[in-house]
Amino acid sequence: MSGAALGIEIVVVFFLALFLLQRYGDFKKQQRMVLFGTLLAWYLCFLIVFILPLDVSTPIYSVRPVMIEHKTLILHVCELIFCPFFQNTQSVCYKPWSYIPDGIMPVFWRVVYWTSQCLTWLLLPFMQSYARSGGFSITGKIKTALIENAIYYGTYLLIFGSLLIYVAVHFQWHLSWYELQTIGITAANTWGLFLLVLLLGYGLVEIPRSYWEVSRQGHLLIKTYFKAAKLMTEKADSEENLEDVMEEVRKINESIKYNHPLRKNVDTILRKCPVEYQEKMGRNIDDCEDFDDKQNTHPTERSLSKLHKQVIYAVQRHNRTRVQWQILLEQAFHLEDVAKNETSTSRQFVHSFAPPEPVGWFRRYIYTPSVEWYWECLLKQWFYRVLSVVLSLFSMAVVWSECTFFSTRPVLSLFAVFIQLAERDYNYLYIEMACFITIFFLCTCVYSTVFRIRVFNYYYLASHHQTDAYSLQFSGMLFCRLTPPLCLNFLGLIHMDSAISHQAKEQTAYTSIMGSMRVLSFIANGFYIYYPMLIVILCIATYFSLGARCLNLLGFQQFMGDNEMTSDLIDEGKELLQRERRKRQRIEDGENRRREWRERYAQSDEIAARNRMSMSEMKETNYGETLNSNTDRRMFNTGRDSIELLQDAEPLDFNDETLNDDPLQSEPGRHTGGRYLSMSSSRSRIFDDV
């Protein structure tokens, strides 16, 4: 069982990354290279987060008793509160079932870390530019990607060179490969920590507040109206942009005929256009011209590449806004239904529109309308309020620990106190669970901010398979750059990083891979300790929505409750949703009328068919009776003929031309045959011929 936990987590994390990529990406339309790069980046980052708690418990088992010498007031209080969780019935230090043998974790971390760094600094930026390029050939896309990434690569080399020069001027240091490696890791972690504190400060406040807003149905509905007005503006803008781009494509399609060398590039652009525009711009195969005519001006290959890039962007944006509009409509209609059902006396949740899909067994037997009413109108809001309060307490614990984790005597970091209490009794399960919950909350605050932020229309993660390739790969880059400093920050919070805590403790395998930060003392003793304290200022700014207010002043409309423009957008969004509701109601009424007419005509057709069937049955009955009478008559005549053969009748003369009217005779018009003499029963004339 030593490697069972590691193997299980590797498999579980892979399916988690695959599920998220399936939700945001599109496996059918996007390039396999883009999907593979994004999946690998997400998978490695999630793997670091899930495996790190196992790495924390391993050195605690390796070092046998580690006693807490100084008990502070916080340690006493926490011991009294959490005493039931730390009582260990065994007096012997037992081996945890999740223990990983020595030598496995260093190799594992080395492979995971350096693979993720190669992805984020080399491969993903190149693949990002390659996927966004409008080139028509592989060579052209590679050339464009190299030119675009030259600036980024130059910036990286400049930072690394500056740190290298700083270390080189200190003659007491002898630069070795290990020290150069540490300088590179330090440079990457410094950049990641700078961005990490910004995202973490936003997420620690925004996540609990978002769950609190979900519990307020009225406030959430008003905010949905605001989003509807903004999304409709974006949707109209995307449609107008698509029309402009398609008009330019139409002009180029008409100017470049089918014997032109650049015609294959135009065909590539046409295949990226929506189907309705392709039908409008259908080409005439016989339409040719002399492309050497100097009077005709044709676009160059470079301008076609630029147009190709514009078409990809316009179509992606149009599809995304269209899908998001439909999703927002469903959410708004659901919130309006909740507001209507809150005053219902029947306590049965009634939807305004029938569900598009048939009701499954879960909604038929478990999530019934009565259960749905109790959840949506009573329990849901209290559940999210309690969850918001719990997350708020957790956020305050993180903020306190970020400001005090450098203090080792006394221990002020709450997470370090919890781990030390469990470490005293060798409660490995609690150590792993506490580490996992803590780092999972930190990752949720950071990663959710990555999924929420939007940099105009260049970076935006949209669910329901609407995220473009550029945004997917950019998120993979951010994850790979944020995860290592996040893990180091977590190890500093629990005092498992000796470079920060300055304690002689057994280091984790992850810390050994990161190298000793003492090579750059001003970073280890300054930046890594005091920069996370800025999280307090960022949390205060997020709580008072200073960022949203600044964006609102710059002209980017944000949801501000006391703003006149916000009220106008709320009213506009409400009118838009009422219009869509009436439109959908008319469509549903039309479907109901057609269904009623079909049912009515089906009944009339059934009655008519039944009448036709009865008439046919009557005809068949009369015809059967006629057939029966004719059959009886034929059988009667046949019986009489048979009886005549047995009768003692006189033989007929074949030369007799006179025929009587005996019904036993043949029918008129047929030759009358004689009878055999041997059939005669007369005895007196037996010897007449002798």
Automatic annotation (TrEMBL):
Instruction: Name the membrane topology term.
Output: Multi-pass membrane protein
Q: Where is the FHA domain?
A: 279-350
Q: What sections of the sequence does the record tag as coiled-coil?
A: 228-255
Keyword set includes RNA-binding? no
Q: Is Transmembrane helix given among the entry's keywords?
A: yes
Question: One Pfam family for this entry, by name?
Answer: LMBR1
A single GO BP: adrenergic receptor signaling pathway
Identify its protein family.
Belongs to the LIMR family.
Localization: Membrane
Kindly state which keywords UniProt assigns to this record, in alphabetical order: Coiled coil, Membrane, Transmembrane, Transmembrane helix
Please give the start and end residues of each transmembrane region: 6-21, 33-54, 111-130, 150-171, 183-205, 382-400, 429-450, 527-546
Per its record, how is this protein called by name?
A: LMBR1 domain containing 2b
The family database entries (InterPro entries) matched by this protein are listed as: FHA_dom, GPCR-associated_LMBR1, LMBR1-like_membr_prot
Which residues lie within the region annotated Disordered?
A: 654-690
Any one cellular-component term (Gene Ontology): membrane
